[in-house]
Amino acid sequence: MSIEKVILEAKNIQSDRLKNINFTLHEGEIITLIGPSGAGKSSLLMLLNRLEDPNEGTIHYLGKDINEYPLEQLRKRIGMVFQSSSLFEGSVEDNLKFGPSLFDEWKPERGKELLEVVQLPKEYLDKNVEELSGGEQQRIAFARTLANKPEILLLDEVTSALDVKNVELIERFLKEIVPNQVKAMMMVTHDIEQAKRLGNRTFFMNNEEIVEQGRTSQVLEAPKTNTLQAFLKE
Amino acid sequence: MAPEISNVSMFFLVFFVLIPVSLSYFYALGLSKSIFWSSFRGVTQLFLIGYVLTYLFSLEPLTGISIMLTVMIVVAALHASKKGQGIPFVRSITFLVIVLIEIFVLVMWLGFDMISFQPDQVIPMSGMVIGNSMVAIGLALERMKSEFKEGKGKIIAALALGAKPEQASKILVRKIVKASMIPNVDGLKTIGLVQLPGMMTGLILGGVAPIEAIRYQIVISLSIFASVSLSAMLVTVIFYRFFFNKNQQMIQMKES
């Protein structure tokens, strides 16, 4: 992994909810973040597309400080999907075109392509989002973020409210889109098995810090710290 | 001229107060004290305003109107802005919005000769417009706080897709303006069918022919409609930005 290109690098990050954060994200990689609630996992993701800002430290994206990118461009290129689908009122198409329309990049045929990626029939384009099931709504939320053609994807417990079938489906297309459509991905999950299934590397966070980081198999199968050992036993 | 209600007749209104008081006593509602107090306060306020208006009507129109409008606008702004506690500059901006609305209706009324610049016309008409705008602004502010709280996930999702605060807020602004306008839209639909509107009732009691009275009612109803929509819209498009910081991140609003 070390020979792969670094696309994101966080150095000495301190924020109201995070301490001492240092890590790199490489091209083609999926990092899974695990840890108890309140550990700072979601806050960490939100720093990367500047939905929050750190008090100290720097984050470089493709070698350039993220503060130097126009905010809208940064958020377009580092897309994020949340635990709750948070779809906007209106049709599936209204949601899919929201992002691209902000940059005058929407093409109507893109709607069908996106539905194909998340394995929903193209007839869904005109459906009102309120008619969709929870799993379908979350898949639309994914498609809405992918519509912006992000280079990095941040996922915050995106499958925690879904049934097994939807979780499997989402995991399958996550494996497909990295690195074909998205260069790298960081995902917060409360499901250790999911972290194993998807992660190349895993970060264990506790008390606002990254306590352990390394290859997923190493971190989860041979935990070094007592806190991680205790967490894995829970 | 309207028939005068004698002091003796007025005295018998006590019975109207006694009914809710007895109910409160009978069902142990514990409201007797506040019923007495609010009735007493209401009656006193109305007598006082009766004297104040009599005095103001006797002054030069410009003086009388200026004094009363200033009081009305200040009280309305203070009252409406209470619903937006925690939002920066809420008092001063609410005040300015109401001033703007009042100027707008005055220009329309006087410019098109709907009423004349006399205290007995400008003050009651303005009072209705300012009062209704106050309610609409209060509703818009209250709704705004709750929508931004409940809709936080959607706003953050929109920001994360690259939307500017203005674009992200659009999804909620529409809802807020609509919610603040609905009471007036509904009110206009049944106007005159369920209850005769206050102004028209007053004019009819004062001896004005119904067909004349409705003209005034139409002027005031539509003025209220316009000012309510305008105030809800202005307040919403001005205040949404205070829910974001300069880095286009959502700010946690302090609870009131």
From TrEMBL, chain A:
Biological processes, Gene Ontology terms = phosphate ion transmembrane transport
Name the GO cellular-component terms: membrane
Keyword ATP-binding attributed: yes
> What PROSITE patterns is this protein classified in?
ABC_TRANSPORTER_1 (PS00211), ABC_TRANSPORTER_2 (PS50893)
A GO term, aspect molecular function = phosphate transmembrane transporter activity
Q: Which InterPro entries match?
A: AAA+_ATPase (IPR003593), ABC_transporter-like_ATP-bd (IPR003439), ABC_transporter-like_CS (IPR017871), P-loop_NTPase (IPR027417), PstB-like (IPR005670)
Q: Which UniProt keywords apply?
A: ATP-binding, Nucleotide-binding, Transport
**Keyword field contains ATP-binding:** yes
Q: Where is the ABC transporter domain?
A: 1-232
Which residue spans traverse the membrane?
none
Fetch the PANTHER family from UniProt: ABC TRANSPORTER I FAMILY MEMBER 17
Full protein name: Phosphate ABC transporter ATP-binding protein
Q: Which organism is it from?
A: Salipaludibacillus keqinensis
UniProtKB/TrEMBL annotation, chain B:
Q: Does the keyword Glycoprotein apply?
A: no
Instruction: Give the bilayer topology.
Output: Multi-pass membrane protein
Q: List the InterPro entries.
A: UPF0014_fam
GO annotation, cellular component aspect: plasma membrane
Q: Which Pfam families match?
A: UPF0014
Which keywords does this Swiss-Prot/TrEMBL entry list? Answer: Membrane, Transmembrane, Transmembrane helix
Localization terms from the record = Membrane
| Record field: transmembrane | 6-28, 62-80, 92-110, 122-141, 191-211, 217-244
Which protein family is named in the record?
Answer: Belongs to the UPF0014 family.
PANTHER family with a match to the protein in the record: PROTEIN ALUMINUM SENSITIVE 3 (PTHR30028:SF0), UPF0014 INNER MEMBRANE PROTEIN YBBM-RELATED (PTHR30028)
* UniProt protein name: Iron export ABC transporter permease subunit FetB
